[in-house]
Amino acid sequence: MTMVGGATGLDTRQQAWAAAASVPDPEVPCVTVADLGILRSVELVDGVAVARVTPTYSGCPAVLAIELAVEAALRDAGFEARVERVVSPAWTTDWITPEGREKLRDYGIAPPQQASSSIRSLFGEIEVACPRCGSAKTERLSEFGSTACKAHWRCLACREPFDYFKCI
Question: 0.90 cut: is pTM over it?
Answer without folding.
Answer: no
